[in-house]
Each structure stands twice: as structure tokens, then as C-alpha cells.
Amino acid sequence: MRILAVGAHAGDMDLTAGAVLAQHVLNHDEVTLVHFNPGEKGHPRLHPQEYAKQKIEEATLFAQHIGAHVRFLPYHDGELTVNADTIYEMTDIIREIRPAVVITHWKESIHPDHAAAHRITEQALFYASLKWHERALPSHFVPYVYYADNWEDSEGFVPEVFVEIHPDAYELWLQAISHYAFARGEITRFPYIAYYQALMQVRGAPKGLGRAQAFMVPAGDLHRKVPYLGPQA
pTM of the prediction? Predict the structure, then answer.
């Protein structure tokens, strides 16, 4: 099975869905992370060009560590726009990769790039599925769409799908996410790794799970506890 995780910035999907992505790789699924931009303006001391290089290196190491593919799109932090160019570029990526699962941001966010990434991906999913919407590659319908559990995207977010994180996937994710300096707490005071470690326990405990990552789904989808995303055996 192919999974596509679409984040506004390098690190977004790595934190919010990274343990699930690692678990799918361990299950021999093919995972691709796409970052619209590196998040290069988030460092208080480094110039954005310098920090962009660092974030791209960190994101590459994360993907390599869990065994995933990674792509970087040519946009800039804080400037992501919902327009024909971004929508059709994502449409083409979806048609190329042909995933069964797409993960992206929830639509309500304190960061405009996150909200834009959601809208771009939603529209691209629609255009990718249209047989008569002519692009270089044939149409592809994605049957499973999920929105990741991000502290910056919390308004209106209702966790509906809970994926239990196995110990081997958790340890793989923990090692991989530690490649990011911001996640280690070296750039801001926000304790990213500790927060998402705790969030896994918070999401898992009410469902009788040791650790879980939670997702919201489009209206009408099934709400359930699952061992993996996508079709269930």
C-alpha cells in the first residue's frame, strides 16, 4: 500500500503522523512525505536560506531513518497560496504516486500555511480523481483521507481514528524525529518531542491502547480504532 503525507513544513507530518508512517514502513508499505516548504523562517538566529538547508537535511534524515521517500516543493514559509499552480502540482503528485491513503493538515489552524496545505490537498484530491480532467498522468481516486493531530490545528479537531503505535515503530519514530533541532527544543522552548510523546498516551489511554496517534476524517467516514490506516484485513 502507498501512503502520501502532505505537510506545510518539514517536520509537520513527521511529528503528527510520523509514528504511524514508521509503522507502515515496518509493515512493508511505501510511504512518501511531501513538504510544501522547509519552514525556513522559524529560526530566531539563522537566516532563512541557511535554516532551509538545515531543515531539508533534517527532513531527509528523518525519511531515511524510517525508510520513507521525501519530496520538497519550491515554496516559502508563510507564503503558501491556494492557487492553480499549487493545486495542479499536488494533483500531479497524487496521480504519480497513486496512494491509497493521504494524510494532511486539518483545515483550522493558527498557521496560514497549514490551512493552505489542507485546502490545496483537498482540491488536488478532487482534481486527481476526475477522469476527464486532463493532465499528463491518468486519474486516481484516493479512498482514505486523514487529518493529522497537530497542536497548531486544534480548533474544531475531533479525534476519530486511533492507530495503536507498536513499540518498534515508536522507537523508530523517536530516533528519527530527534534529527530535527527544533523538535529537540534547541530553537524554541516548545517541547515538541515530549508533547507528542504525551499526546500518544493521551489519545491511546481512553481507547485501551498504550500509545496511539489520532486522526480526523472527512464527513461520513467510519470512526474506528485501527491497527493501520487504509483498508483493513
Answer: 0.93
